[in-house]
């Protein structure tokens, strides 16, 4: 026993090295529990604060671009409003918009305060948290298209998985033909992602629009993801391998919106009931 | 002792902030990312007890991890270089007497510091990138990324010695 202790003291550096290295590797391989550990990601108070202060300084450099994008978004919304008001009340002639009462989607505006594109698993940090109504599994979109999904929320910050994260795939639909597949980033180019599970008999062409399918309860149906840039038919497979050019430039993220689907719990509950019934049969 | 603590404490905070706020956003062609915070492990005096170096390395790695949502990867890489540091120093120093307690550029020959930086940075990047990709299937492309990023990190670290940590 004494010799063991003497050995440990003599080789304390090695013992400590093994301990710390094991601790670090446990974190690497228990990725999910790390994400659940509340204080060890960039949604915690200190890192969130530092990132938002940094953003408040560097944000000025992108103001003209942000302005232009917001103006474009504004114009687009004005157009939509014009269409709505024309359709809704042609008789009255007034521009009052009659939105349906049972709207199930709510948008929460937020700012991206940290983001990366060069790693195999990229994350985005937002400056809004549970205080503003953000919950895990809500989608993140911008005026240009789909960005990611919220993974972890603290009181005033949130961390989301970016579309550029190989641990995640999203259900995507071809706007023209209605066929859907899943979109996964391959980790190479931040402008492109791969779309799989599109059967060979579907007619596709470069330039076709890819949108969200609405089959998951994260994104509503019809949000822009990107356009097909190239595709080919791998030998011996029943599916195309499609490259999609993403609509969003992930190197220049600014204002985003978090999508809250208000009926989500109801949908999930319903789906769970059906699944449980099948298991019971 | 207090002065030592303050000096290296400030260095810790500054290096983490510079890393996560500046260098994590420096990206050439999508994948070159310099990791400059390795300097902290490199610049601790050689007489520092080894457990202090190991803990220092672990915590600065963990701090960068928390900021970049990469669980334990930086910590694992920095603990390794903190452990191998004395061996690296011993292997590149020719004689006992030309070893200064401070392994900075000013206290040592340029070629010595360059070797020191190159070895430490390469080990760090090697572990970090392979943990990040968690596969050996794209060995050559990952190795290319490691080499390009290492060259860039070495360049920035040596440059930083000329600019700031001169004392």
Report low-confidence residues of chain A grouped into runs of 5 or more. 91-102
Largest sheet of chain A: 6 strands, antiparallel, barrel
Largest sheet of chain B: none
User: How many β-strand stretches of chain B?
Assistant: 0
Head-to-tail CA distance between termini of chain A = 61 Å
Shape of chain A: globular
Mean pLDDT of chain A: 82
Description:
The complex is a heterodimer of chains A (281) and B (167). The termini of chain A are far apart. Chain A has helices at residues 2-10, 12-29, 31-36, 45-58, 63-88, 264-280; strands at residues 105-115, 121-126, 139-141, 146-153, 158-165, 169-174, 180-184, 192-196, 209-212, 224-232, 241-246, 255-261. Chain A has six helices and twelve strands. Chain A is of the alpha+beta class. Chain A has a six-stranded antiparallel beta barrel. In chain A, strands 6-7-8-11-10-9 form a six-stranded antiparallel barrel. In chain B, 40% of the residues are buried. The longest helix of chain B is centred in the C-terminal third of the chain and has 25 residues, at 139-163. Chain B is mostly helical. Chain B is globular, with a radius of gyration of 15 Å. Chain B has six helices and no strands. Classes of the chains: A alpha+beta (281), B mainly alpha (167). Chains A and B meet through α2, α3 and α4 of A and α1, α3, α4 and α5 of B.
